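2024-03-11 09:14:02 DEBUG pipeline.ingest accepted 1 chain
2024-03-11 09:14:02 DEBUG pipeline.ingest length=330
2024-03-11 09:14:03 DEBUG pipeline.predict start
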Amino acid sequence: MTDAAQQPRTNRAYWTVEPGRGELRTAPLPAPGPDEVLVRALRSGISRGTERLVHRGLVPARVHERMRAPFQEGTFPGPVKYGYLSVGVVEQGPQPLVGRRVFVLHPHQDRYVVPAADVTPVPDGVPSDRAVLAGPVETAVNALWEAAPRFRDRVAVVGAGMIGACTAALLARFPLARLQLVDPQPSRAGLARALGVEHVRPEDAAGECDVVVHASSTAAGLARGLELLGDEGELIEMSWYGDEDPAVPLGADFHARRLQIRASQVGVVAPARRARRTPADRRAAALDALRDPRFDALLTGSSPFEELPATMARLAGDAPEALCHVVRYD
């Protein structure tokens, strides 16, 4: 435990100051209250899909409030302190937590004070780099609670970005008749092999699916996902489109085949489990799933915290291979 007299008086955090530009800012660090913890960051993760939209100022005004991260400061399009994948060690707080590694839905910041109820201990078998994936894995857990795949189902995950890959990794544990990870990039074949699933290009994907999980954030992916469904099949929509409004192909045989589209969003626990699971339960389940080393395939790079402004600019540009980039605070 850090002595109160020796507690750091400031913190540094990453801010998007305007579309396309970020910087590290220094601010006072408050002393933790009786039900709070002081966390020293070890790692944070850049969720490229969402944070790319934030960096480029593309969060639509109509969803500014809905898109707020739990400990966000500022407002879109900026200046705003945004992010939600942080792993650190508790330096001050309730004794059972002191010295523990924890996951927190916090922006990129070297030290921060949050309520003790908002931290989730990281299991001993989960490395800190991998633990930053708790956010997207929790999103995937929620989607599977929505989709409820059944024994010997035929399932396709369309889109092999971070969310789609996490969902496919969890589905690989299910006793399915068929599981395909559908993505047009040939390079995703290596990721699929590491996750233990089959990679196929959209034109080669098998149809008659019972469930399709769509996570490509493209209108073409959504259309192909609907084509892959069998009669009365269901598509779970996980994509976030930012300021785009994709066309949804509801003509042709959509009604005749009684297809369904259902949204999944991590802001609330899926209705099928809401009466018996809390968000904390869901996050703990995600961290437990991360004992599986296959998830390391989603970690596609790392860099020091001091380089974060340049790193964010690079990832917000043309970096199609990037999934989760790890920020190091050591």
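2024-03-11 09:14:41 DEBUG pipeline.report The radius of gyration is 20 Å.
2024-03-11 09:14:41 DEBUG pipeline.predict end
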